[in-house]
Write a structure and sequence with these properties.
Helix 2 packs antiparallel against helix 4. This protein is 75% helix and 0% strand. The protein has four helices and no strands. The protein is mostly helical and 76 residues long. The chain has one domain. The longest helix has 33 residues.
């Protein structure tokens, strides 16, 4: 039995890969959420006048933050 065949029958390799993918997905979700939160905070900190200058109403903040987060996602 060669080393290569031992690696391919490792019963924990698939589990290990699933755990690694879970960690990568979680890190990506946290990064995207951070973009959402930062956008929300920055827009909320602006006055109504400042937001009006850039064409955003206070009721638009959740939508704009969601769009910013969606744009920050990495392409699959």
């Amino acid at each position: 039995m060669t080393l290569q065949s031992i690696r391919t029958i490792n019963p924990f390799e698939r589990f290990h890969n699933l755990i690694q993918q879970f960690k990568a997905d979680r890190a990506e979700r946290r990064r995207v959420r951070a973009v959402y939160d930062r956008t929300w905070r920055e827009l909320s900190a602006m006055s109504d006048r400042e937001r009006a200058d850039i064409g955003i109403h206070s009721s638009d903040i959740p939508r704009v933050a969601s769009e910013a987060a969606a744009l920050s996602r990495k392409a699959p």
